[in-house]
């Protein structure tokens, strides 16, 4: 029988995949996509808690909605940043961006 | 194993498989399309947890808007041949760090999840979830709601200014 | 009837719509913009008349509807309408004056490049004031209160190309900010103490509240708002400078929208002020002082608009004084009549200024009565009404105030009020004899203004003559019957007081005639003899200079003290910290390679370490 634990473990694995993507991809857009995967993993947690532990309040779902709102804002700004820096450097390769190097 | 479990396993396979694909693919277009599949898989999981509204929002916002936005951005910034658009970083050390941290995280979190005795308290899903959400959003959490609205507005303005270039006359 | 009242939200809504329409779409077509704006305020006027008819046919009573806007634990905010006779009168006054001012502006502003935006600002100004009037709680009032402040800022600074206009707009905004700060604090206090901002709920709660100290604090804080908005001493400095805006705007600010808001608020929240005699005393003395103070300044000013501005200050002081002595009805009555004759005077002044190519010095006018008969005679009617000559409107309302002051036993304030009545008559007719009838013939090239400007003048003149009758014994005090509050007493009019005030007004006019028309007294010589006082008055008691000095010495002094503290104490500590940070940074900087993903690794590593240590802690606790 599939239960709460399975959802949490799934969410952990998804989070890990996103995390690996953030660390290892060169393309800034790909990193942003990995961040989205991580946010989705978090949302699965919220929904699972909302269903299995605090099912009467609906608060988990509310938080998931707020996460989605923040994610939408983050994508918009993130992509705008990528486009802006692409105009400067003609590249989206994160290894080329080291303006803050010591 | 009942039908519910079978659906769950199917969704997990889709979600995890396409998420792995996002990270592994060397072509960023493929990554983006697989990302849509991941989002849809997650939406399926929401439906399975009786969270229909969130599932729909997931499909609309992630599957629709965010994916399109990402694909647009890819189109705007792609300049080499597609097969080399989404390579991993050349530094082996960093990749190993990634693997190491992810494995540690999954083991640690997985173990703690597995061994915790969760205070499960499922009530029969009866209440109309949209009503519940609406009441929360415009009631107790109205300030958060308004702040989220302002955040979106600021993000839109910020994104336009960043993408347009503030100095362009 | 109920339907009309329930949908009275359209009254402020229409001007707001006009503002939005002009601002978004119509600004390219100035004539169309003006038409839309006037149509909106005209419809509001028609609707206000309907509302007033509904209210007055019903007799005194309150109509209130509200919808919940924000509902959180511990905080409920409503949006609502409150229609009672007070509201109805204010709606009528504001819409009539705003409509006439807008019509007049077609003529006055006809070749201005900002014609369309001018009408947009006029619309939002009128809309904000109307919204303020129909609000049923303090929260909503505060929103519109600030909107009124914003739109006045826009209009005062309308000719923002001029340095002085920009400065005046800033001054108006910042001075109001000082008052609004106290006002907001007062509102917050009310919310904290009583848990509601609704007027009806508050009046119930306050009646049974006994902590006088708190009530005094709250009411004094609330009073700060009207002191700023209605330009009472010591926050009066912005109003004379607000002359920098176009003249019709001054008419609007002085008569109907901006300064009336403060008086209206005191009347609306009268149940709060009325509970503490101490606050009432403060209000009365403040109003009386402002009345005398401003009237004395007006005696010697030379700028036609400045004279009118100080006269407004003084009349506002009158109204506030009336509220302070408990004669709320008289105060509101005077607000209404004053709105008509003061907007008449300002529009008349605008007509003169327009005809004389922006000349504002009364000594450079003269002989205007031949060239501009309509302007002159309507102006004279306005001045007679302002001076309180029977049977014009100003006479009835001023008499009610003096009567209320006298009957409530404030002898000092009564004498002061009568003195101000005398001074008012004097400075108004000084203005008239010099500017309109003086022998200086600067006005020979002047010509009468077009009909769009004179017709509003005539309408306002008619109102200035007849509006007073609604509160006079001739109509059985109809006004006092409706605009009232629990425990109101109407004093029987005293013939003596009427005679005294009329006699004072007439003698003021006579003195002005004697000095400035017949020149039995040489005013130039008088000016030199009274040198010190003249300079003091001419420079407005040096209040502006005092504020500048205060800022220079007190605030700069504090700043210097802070600077010393900053340099010697804070800097030392900060330098030490900076050195430490620098030293650490020098050695740790090699962890910063500028790569986003390296930083991501740090973050994730930290997270994983936290998770693992938490796990270890739990396992050791179990084992």
Structural description of this entry:
The complex is a heterotrimer of chains A (102), B (169) and C (623). Chain A has three helices and no strands. With 102 residues, chain A is mostly helical. Chain A has one domain: Helix Hairpins (Orthogonal Bundle). By secondary structure, chain B is an all-alpha fold. Chain B starts with a helix and ends in a 5-residue tail after the last helix. Chain C has 623 residues and is mostly helical. Chain C contains 27 helices and two strands. In chain C, helix 4 packs parallel to helix 16, helix 9 runs parallel beside helix 14 and helix 16 packs antiparallel against helix 21. Chain C is globular. The termini of chain C are far apart. The model of chain C has no long low-confidence stretch (mean pLDDT 83). The chains are: A mainly alpha (102), B mainly alpha (169), C mainly alpha (623). At the A-C interface, helix 1 of A face helix 27 of C.
Secondary structure topology:
The complex is a heterotrimer of chains A (102), B (169) and C (623).
Chain A: H1 4-24, H2 28-52, H3 59-89
Chain B: H1 3-24, H2 28-48, H3 52-77, H4 92-115, H5 129-138, H6 142-164
Helix pairs in contact in B: 1-2, 2-3
Chain C: H1 2-6, H2 10-24, H3 30-58, E1 63-72, E2 75-83, H4 85-108, H5 115-134, H6 138-156, H7 163-194, H8 199-207, H9 212-229, H10 238-241, H11 247-255, H12 258-268, H13 270-273, H14 277-298, H15 304-324, H16 328-355, H17 368-371, H18 373-387, H19 393-407, H20 411-435, H21 451-466, H22 478-482, H23 495-517, H24 523-529, H25 531-538, H26 543-588, H27 596-622
Antiparallel strand pairs in C: 1-2
- Net shape of chain C: globular
Which class do the helix and strand fractions of chain B yield? Answer: mainly alpha
Q: What fraction of the residues of chain C are assigned to beta strands by DSSP?
A: under 5%
Unreliable stretches covering 5 or more consecutive residues of chain B: none
Largest sheet of chain B: none
Helix content of chain C: over 70%
Listing every helix as H and every strand as E from the N terminus to the C terminus, the arrangement of chain C reads HHHEEHHHHHHHHHHHHHHHHHHHHHHHH
Average pLDDT of chain B: 86
């Amino acid at each position: 029988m599939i239960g709460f634990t399975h959802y949490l473990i799934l969410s952990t694995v998804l989070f890990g995949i996103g995390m690996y993507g953030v660390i290892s991809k060169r393309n800034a857009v790909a990193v942003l996509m990995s961040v989205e995967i991580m946010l989705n993993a978090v949302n699965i947690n919220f929904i699972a808690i909302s269903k299995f532990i605090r099912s009467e309040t609906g608060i988990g779902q509310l938080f998931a909605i707020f996460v989605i709102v923040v994610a939408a804002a983050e994508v918009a700004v993130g992509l705008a940043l990528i486009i802006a820096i692409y105009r400067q450097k003609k590249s989206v390769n994160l290894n080329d961006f080291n303006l803050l190097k010591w | 194993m009942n039908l519910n479990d079978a659906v769950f396993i199917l969704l997990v396979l889709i979600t995890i498989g396409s998420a792995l694909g996002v990270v592994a693919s060397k072509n960023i277009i493929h990554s983006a399309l697989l990302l849509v599949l991941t989002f849809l898989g997650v939406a399926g999981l929401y439906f399975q947890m009786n969270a229909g509204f969130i599932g729909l929002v997931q499909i609309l916002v992630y599957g629709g808007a965010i994916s399109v936005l990402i694909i647009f951005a890819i189109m705007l910034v792609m300049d080499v041949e597609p097969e080399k658009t989404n390579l991993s970083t050349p530094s082996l050390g960093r990749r190993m760090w990634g693997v190491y941290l992810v494995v540690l995280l999954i083991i640690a979190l997985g173990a703690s999840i597995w061994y915790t005795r969760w205070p499960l308290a499922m009530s029969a899903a009866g209440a109309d979830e949209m009503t519940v959400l609406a009441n929360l959003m415009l009631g107790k959490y109205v300030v958060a709601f308004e702040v989220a609205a302002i955040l979106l507005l600021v993000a839109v303005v910020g994104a336009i200014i960043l993408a347009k270039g503030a100095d362009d006359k | 009837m109920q339907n009309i009242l329930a949908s009275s939200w359209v009254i402020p809504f229409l001007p707001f719509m006009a503002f939005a329409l002009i601002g978004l779409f119509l600004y390219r077509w100035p004539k169309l913009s003006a038409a839309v704006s006037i149509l909106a305020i005209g419809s509001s006027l028609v609707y206000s008349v309907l509302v007033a008819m509904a209210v007055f046919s019903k007799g005194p009573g309150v109509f209130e509807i509200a919808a919940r806007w924000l509902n959180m634990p511990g905080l409920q905010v409503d949006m609502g309408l409150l229609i009672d006779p007070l509201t109805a009168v204010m709606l009528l006054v504001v819409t009539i004056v705003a409509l006439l001012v807008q019509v007049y502006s077609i003529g006055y502003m006809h070749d201005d490049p900002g014609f369309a935006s001018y009408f947009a600002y006029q619309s939002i100004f009128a809309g904000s004031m109307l919204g303020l009037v129909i609000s049923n709680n303090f929260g909503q009032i505060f929103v519109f209160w600030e909107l009124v402040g914003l739109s006045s800022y826009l209009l005062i600074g309308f000719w923002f190309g001029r340095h002085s206009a920009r400065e005046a707009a800033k001054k108006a905004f910042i001075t109001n900010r000082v008052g609004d700060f106290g006002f907001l604090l007062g509102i917050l206090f009310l919310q904290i103490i009583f848990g509601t901002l609704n007027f009806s709920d508050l009046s119930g709660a306050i009646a049974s509240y006994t902590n006088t100290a708190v009530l005094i604090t709250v009411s004094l804080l609330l009073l700060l708002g009207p002191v700023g908005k209605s330009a009472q001493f010591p926050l009066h400095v912005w109003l004379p400078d607000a002359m920098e805006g176009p003249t019709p705007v001054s008419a609007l600010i002085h008569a109907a929208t901006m300064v009336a808001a403060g008086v209206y608020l005191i009347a609306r929240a009268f149940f709060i002020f009325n509970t503490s005699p101490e606050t009432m005393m403060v209000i009365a003395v403040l109003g009386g002082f402002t009345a005398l103070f401003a009237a004395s300044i007006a005696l010697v000013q030379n700028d036609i608009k400045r004279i009118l501005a100080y006269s407004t200050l003084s009349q506002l002081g009158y109204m506030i004084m009336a509220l302070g002595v408990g004669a709320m009805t008289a105060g509101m009555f005077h607000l209404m009549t004053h709105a008509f004759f003061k907007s008449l005077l300002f529009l008349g002044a605008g007509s003169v200024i327009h005809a004389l190519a922006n000349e504002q010095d009364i000594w450079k006018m003269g002989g205007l009565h031949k060239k501009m008969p309509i302007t002159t005679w309507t102006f004279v009617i306005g001045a007679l009404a302002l001076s309180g000559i029977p049977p014009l409107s100003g006479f009835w309302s001023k008499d009610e105030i003096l009567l209320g002051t006298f009957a409530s036993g404030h002898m000092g304030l009564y004498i002061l009020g009568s003195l101000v009545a005398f001074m008012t008559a004097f400075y108004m007719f000084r203005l008239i004899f010099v500017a309109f009838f003086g022998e200086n013939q600067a006005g020979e090239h002047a010509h009468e203004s077009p009909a769009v400007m004179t017709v509003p003048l005539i309408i306002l003149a008619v109102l200035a003559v007849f509006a007073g009758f609604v509160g006079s014994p001739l109509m059985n005090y109809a006004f006092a019957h409706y605009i009232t509050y629990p425990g109101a007493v109407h004093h029987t009019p005293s013939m003596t007081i009427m005679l005294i005030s009329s006699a004072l007004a007439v003698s003021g006019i006579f003195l002005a005639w004697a000095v400035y028309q017949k020149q039995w007294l040489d005013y130039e010589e008088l000016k030199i003899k009274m040198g010190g006082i003249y300079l003091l008055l001419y420079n407005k008691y040096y209040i502006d200079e005092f504020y500048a000095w205060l800022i220079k010495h007190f605030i700069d002094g504090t700043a210097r003290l802070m600077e010393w503290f900053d340099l010697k104490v804070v800097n030392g500590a900060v330098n030490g910290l900076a050195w430490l940070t620098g030293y650490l940074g020098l050695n740790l900087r090699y962890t910063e390679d500028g790569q986003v993903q390296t930083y991501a690794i740090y973050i994730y590593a930290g997270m994983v370490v936290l998770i693992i240590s938490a796990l270890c802690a739990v396992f050791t606790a179990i084992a």
